[in-house]
Amino acid sequence: ERRAAANAPITPGALADGTKVQLLANIGGVKDTAKAVELGAEGVGLFRTEFLFLDSKSAPTVQQQKEQYAAVLKAFPGKKVVVRALDAGADKPLSFLNDSEEENPALGLRGLRVLRTHEDILREQLTALAEAAAETEAELWVMAPMVSEPEESEYFTALARELGIKVPGVMVEVPSAALLASQILKSADFVSIGTNDLTQYTLAADRLLGTVAAFQDPWHPAVLKLVAEVGRAGAAAGKSVGICGEAAADPALAVVLVGLGAKSLSMTPAALADVRAELLTVTLEQAQARAAAALTAGSAAAARAAAATA
Ligand code: PEP
Ligand code: MG
User: Fold this and answer.
1) Which residues surround ligand 2, an ion (CB under 5 A)?
2) Smallest Cα–Cα separation from 193: which of 177, 175, 171, 174?
3) Burial class (CB in 10 A: 0-12, 13-18, 19+), 296
4) Residue 93, exposed/middle/buried by CB under 10 A (0-12, 13-18, 19+)?
5) Which reaction is recorded as catalysed by this protein (predicted)?
6) Is 173 in the pocket of ligand 1 (CB under 6 A)?
7) What is the pTM for the complete model shown?
């Protein structure tokens, strides 16, 4: 079946009834763009910019960043490219931003929280992105990581707009942000759910810790309930809800996520063919039925089984 999916024609993401589901790529830089285009990504749903900063003792200059961003954007003329502002901390520590003395860095100053304490770095990154977008044909969207309440979305989106970003949004990867998604969507133009962190924070299980790895399962109905809440909020606000965590790369779970209201799925390009093929086997009504079945389960394993038989 895997081979069949790989050989199937590359079409835009859609369900059997024609409902569109944008299929996007997760990338870490310009080195990943050729594969994404070749495998039919309709754009980028998550550009993790940390990789540009990882090896440095300080942030790259605006000019250096602008060159890197422009090179990525140029690979997607006329397409959406969602760039994530620097997500430093926890599993992605940066020496010049993070305090290595924190006892629980996943619960500490990471993502937008640490950018707010170094606003110069955030301003420089947003400026470089706006300047790069002005030179290319891609449609640039920019989102903040690790947002936990509406005020943080108001802060980020206002600053991004001030610096020339046309479509600012936020990631939903903390349960509080999922529960308050409708308020967040008053300032954010879109939300993208990061299921890796959303699972970690919902199940209170460190994503880097092997002893609790069994809890790091995005099929968990508690995670799916939060996704459903965000899906409802997005539909009510008429704004885009995407998924950019690993969950989107699991074909059966991708169907459930669409049933819960996701309009786009972003994944490692290698997963696009299988997800594309699976989506074409169900109508929106069937996807919603699988989602409803998964939501009634009491564990990740039970949710998987319930969706499979719905
Ligand atoms: C996530 O948390 O699901 C996500 C997409 O971001 P990262 O894995 O880079 O934290
Ligand atoms: Mg994350």
Assistant:
1) 173, 194, 197
2) 171
3) exposed
4) middle
5) L-histidyl-[protein] + phosphoenolpyruvate = N(pros)-phospho-L-histidyl-[protein] + pyruvate
6) yes
7) 0.96
